[in-house]
Design a protein that fits this description.
Blueprint (H helix, E strand, L loop, with lengths): L2 H4 L4 H10 L4 H7 L9 H7 L14 H8 L9 H9 L12 H7 L8 H8 L13 H7 L2 H4 L4 H6 L15 H8 L15 H8 L10 H7 L1 H9 L5 H9 L17
Helix pairs in contact: 14-15
Length: about 260
């Protein structure tokens, strides 16, 4: 704790934030040059920084956090203080780039220890990932300069130019296709109140091929299908399910293996 902070009106907030380990002075000064070397960065963050959307570290986004969880704040509450006091304990995300609940479980972070603080201390090691979808080991192996220069692999990946992918028009989306099949229109927001069975079956055929299917189980469970496949009457058990089995009430796999979560 600096001498300046002890004499500042925000000293209580600053003391809590300083003790949390979630404020990175060097990163803050490097990211916000206007703060200047003359100002204590922690005092600046407690007084003005968070109101301006300045981040205390690369993984806490005050504006995003406020927009996401602000309904739970006390009047004029610093979002980082809310995260320290309550948010992290309740598995609130500090930004879209860190999942505290997954991180705590994945790396066996002890009760009372801050997952975000742990990651900030170890983020340049190439051992820990902020999200389950990011394979830090594979990325570090493919980009060894990250670790050799002390960089955070995830931030290194985030800052790389991403290949732009053209999005197809909404008129070509699966929903638009289904609505078109049943006589509706996504563009005009029209959904028919009554759909004939024949039309409904046609729409269902759009999804049936994507239902998890176990060929061997289906043949064992429905020997008539297995015999038809063997004799060449039908091309495959899956083809039978798509064209007939689904509408006959047959199951594509053992109970519980294909039912979508509600």
């Amino acid at each position: 704790m600096t001498e300046h902070l002890e004499n500042h009106p925000q000293r209580l907030d600053g003391s809590i934030i300083d003790s949390s380990g979630l404020f990175d002075r060097d990163w803050y000064l490097a990211s916000y040059l206007e703060v200047g070397e003359q100002a204590d960065p922690l005092i600046h963050f407690c007084r003005d920084g968070w109101r301006l959307g300045f981040q205390p570290n690369p993984y806490f986004h005050p504006s995003w956090y406020t927009k996401t969880y602000g309904a739970e704040f006390l009047p004029d509450e610093n979002p980082l203080l809310h995260y320290i006091r309550r948010g992290e304990r309740e598995n609130a995300w500090p930004s879209p780039h860190f999942d505290p609940e997954w991180y705590r479980d994945e790396y066996a972070i002890g009760v009372g220890e801050s997952p975000l603080r742990h990651y900030l201390l170890n983020r340049a090691s190439g051992t820990y990932s902020p999200l389950p979808v990011f394979d830090v080991a594979a990325y570090a192996e493919a980009n060894p300069e990250c670790l050799s220069t002390g960089q955070d692999p995830y931030l290194h990946w985030l800052q790389q130019p991403k290949e732009e992918v053209d999005s197809p028009p909404i008129s070509e989306s699966p929903l638009a296709t289904v609505l078109d099949l049943v006589g509706g229109s996504l563009e005009h927001g029209n959904i028919p109140d009554v759909v004939p069975w024949k039309v409904f079956k046609q729409a269902l055929r759009f999804f049936i091929p994507h239902i998890p299917f176990e060929e061997a189980w289906y043949c064992r469970h429905y020997p008539d299908v297995a015999a038809a496949v063997k004799c060449g009457l039908i091309a495959s058990a899956h083809g039978h399910f798509v064209d007939y089995g689904f509408f006959e009430g047959r199951s594509p796999a053992p109970p519980g293996h294909w039912i979508a979560p509600r």
